[in-house]
Write a structure and sequence with these properties.
10 strands; 2 domains; alpha+beta; three-stranded antiparallel beta sheet; 8 helices; single chain; five-stranded antiparallel beta sheet; about 325 residues; Aminoglycoside 3'-phosphotransferase, Chain: A, domain 2
Length: about 325
């Protein structure tokens, strides 16, 4: 049998399909059809039932660095949001044994994999409906998630990521290693270092300010929010972590910062946020510094995984450098 990593995307999907079927055996669902949605990172399947109900089954890739504790916390927060709020969030489906996270395996797929099922979020990506009014709705959504997270506590004993440093993800920081000096020459390295120092100062200020950390979505942007009949549904809570709201807002803004109308987008988001809660930025440029942190994190990630951008790493890093320079001039 051909090794899994040598298969085409379609070949890997066929094997993951068998694993998904094995996972479904642990649930009480009258499955009519199982279809692959994407296999670009995790394996995402749509589950149609004979009753007409639709669900999402996610097969977590082991390369993502997510632990069982992390996925369990993700599912627990989604369950709490479903129960405690009127937000339209995917709610997790317990397996027959009551667990929100199961494991399954299949011949030809290395390692058993964590699997979860949650309700289908209707609509299309918010990116297709990114009007000022809807950006304001995104600001309201962000604020409501932050308000719930202020009071919510995950189950005891779950170890989660913390955004208490510039690079919060578990990947090693290789951005400044000499072996990548061709990709990051001295001038670029100086820009990256300056941005890192800027972000670290913001982290230090937050840590000493006394505001407790809370769970953050960690990846709330217009491609991780579904839009349906004027209502927003946040999806993909997989990058949740402990942190402060300004860091979450910066992640959202990162994906608009290059737009010509970025000031208008940011103002619309802030307007919506303030409809629900106080704006959480306590120092000028604080959010911008964490937009810079996102850029540094993306640069580090791409050096780890150049294949994800068709090996166009030099152009990507040049773009990040220019973005950081603009941010630090503001």
């Amino acid at each position: 049998m051909k090794p899994y990593n040598e298969l085409t995307e379609r070949g890997r999907a066929r094997r993951l399909h068998k694993l998904a079927l094995a996972a479904l055996e642990q649930y009480d669902l009258d499955v009519a059809r199982l279809r692959l949605v994407t296999n670009s990172n995790n394996g995402i399947f749509r589950v149609d039932t004979h009753s007409g109900r639709k669900w999402i089954l996610r097969v977590t890739t082991p390369e993502g660095g997510h632990t069982h504790e992390h996925v369990a916390a993700e599912m627990d927060w989604l369950a709490a949001l479903s129960q405690d709020t009127h937000l339209s969030v995917p709610h997790p489906l317990p397996a027959r044994n009551g667990s929100l996270v199961v494991e399954a395996g299949a011949v030809g797929v290395p390692q058993r994999r964590m699997c979860v099922i949650f309700s289908w979020a209707p609509g299309s990506n918010l990116a297709e409906h990114f009007t000022p009014d809807n950006i304001s709705l995104l600001g309201e959504l962000s604020a409501r998630l932050h308000l719930h997270a202020r009071m919510y506590k995950p189950p005891n004993g779950l170890s989660l990521l913390k955004f208490d440093r510039v690079f919060p993800f578990p990947e090693s920081v290789i951005l400044f290693e000499e072996r990548f000096s061709a990709l990051i020459p001295p001038a670029r390295r100086a820009v990256f270092q300056k941005a890192m120092d800027w972000t670290q100062a913001s982290v230090d200020r937050l840590k000493s300010g006394g505001e407790p950390m809370r769970l953050l979505h960690g990846d709330l942007h217009q491609w991780n929010v579904r839009y349906f009949r004027g209502r927003l549904s946040p999806i993909d809570f997989e990058d949740l972590m402990w942190g402060w709201p300004v860091q979450d807002i910066a992640t959202t803004m990162y994906y608009s910062v290059d737009a010509d109308d970025y000031p208008d987008r940011r103002a619309a988001f802030e307007r919506g946020y303030k409809n629900v809660s106080l704006w959480p930025e306590h120092a000028p440029g604080e959010i911008d510094s964490f937009i810079a942190a996102r850029g540094l994190g993306m640069a580090n990630f791409v050096i780890h995984h150049p294949e994800l951008i068709d090996n166009d790493t030099p152009a990507f890093l040049e773009h990040i450098e220019k973005r950081l320079q603009r941010l630090m001039k503001q």
